[in-house]
Amino acid sequence: MDYHVRDLALAPEGRKKIEWVAREMPVVSAIGEEWKKTRPLEGLKVAACLHVTSETAVLMLALKKGGAQIRLCASNPLSTQDEVAASLVSDFEIPVFAIRGEDRDTYYRHIEEVVSFSPQITMDDGADLVSYLHKEGGPLLEGVWGGTEETTTGVIRLRSLARSGKLAYPIIAVNDADTKHLFDNRYGTGQSTIEGILRATHVLLAGKRFVVVGYGWCGRGIAMRARGMGAQVAVVEVDPIRALEAFMDGNLVMSMDEAAEWGEVLVTATGNVSVIRREHFLKMRDGAILSNAGHFNVEIDVEALEKLCVNKRKIRGMIDEYTLPDGKRIFLLGEGRLVNLSCAEGHPPEVMDLSFANQALSVLYLKKNASTLPKDVFKVPEEIDRQVALMKLGHLGVKVETMTERQKQYLSSWEEGT
């Protein structure tokens, strides 16, 4: 079996991590156990480019129980848990190509390895795998039936590809499922981003001036959790409706120029490029802490910071200290990459249970329906979204109300009024 991981001797530690998070992922685990009996994915080849974490491992095991042949690589150079990668290879015979800290060339070589076995379905987080296939073209691309995309940034890229008329196969935007973005993006990113900042810095957030750049579902979650820790929160937004929402939620709202001067801890969560730039670095206070919660390391202009500084040193774990010409110091966490994965362990398994249940069921949906779908980006089918929510509620011991026939009739009619 082909694979490229750091050290197979790490497998025992990785297996224990997988067992630990599987306890908190009952929906994906239940899907896997059902599929073990029915084998609905028998022989299906799936190429996955995801964060190689213990939560992802639970999804991979469910797909394998369903009969799928899988290859997995990392969707971010700093998100791989080497012990989990080793366990997937050693204990479960799933080919993994991922090493924490891998350079750019290795990262893309791993994507090449993952697609080299002619997959029929792709699973992506950020759209690097899909983008690679479309740039290469040829028989590998032609053999793909459909794919799934996990995150906001990837969906943005894929919708752009679809608008250009160049998308070669249908993609299900798992990120757009209600049981994904309302929970994973808000509660998952909110908690794990704060955890990453605290693990890296060990600072007290209570009383800190905390800036969130971007008020999508991820930004909402980060702001909510920072306020819960006692921080003073300001939001930077380009969308007037989101800015108004942020204000009504109890946050300060200001421009990036104002926030650069005001903030002590700053987090980007926009999915866009260079939202914190050279002119902002120059305005920052001594000791400002910068981090990024967006998928790619482009939101903070690290290249401009490198050129601007007169000295750079590794000051603590995943913290780089940049000294500016006037003596001010700026601290960058996790090289500007996803702070929740570069400095912590990513989202809690409870929310990934929802996201990865959508992934698993969307793969099965594509196996059955990809040939009839146009080459476009789609939401997760509503029946899957609702099924995931009901399964999660069932495992939580929560019951939902059922409408009476009279209530159904009332909502489906137009005759009754005042």
TrEMBL record:
The keyword Ribonucleoprotein is assigned to this record: no
Signal peptide as annotated in the record: none
UniProt-annotated binding residues for NAD(+): 151-153, 185, 214-219, 237, 272, 293-295, 340
Subcellular location: Cytoplasm
Catalysis performed (reactions): S-adenosyl-L-homocysteine + H2O = L-homocysteine + adenosine
Record bears the keyword Zinc: no
Pfam families assigned to the protein according to its UniProt record, in alphabetical order: AdoHcyase (PF05221), AdoHcyase_NAD (PF00670)
Keywords from the named record: Cytoplasm, Hydrolase, NAD, One-carbon metabolism
Cofactor(s) the record lists: NAD(+)
List of residues binding substrate: 53, 125, 150, 180, 184
SUPFAM superfamilies referenced in this protein's UniProt entry, alphabetically: Formate/glycerate dehydrogenase catalytic domain-like, NAD(P)-binding Rossmann-fold domains
SMART domains referenced in this protein's UniProt entry, alphabetically: AdoHcyase, AdoHcyase_NAD
E.C. no: 3.13.2.1
Role: May play a key role in the regulation of the intracellular concentration of adenosylhomocysteine.
Protein name listed in UniProt: Adenosylhomocysteinase
Organism: Thermatribacter velox
Species lineage: Bacteria, Pseudomonadati, Atribacterota, Atribacteria, Atribacterales
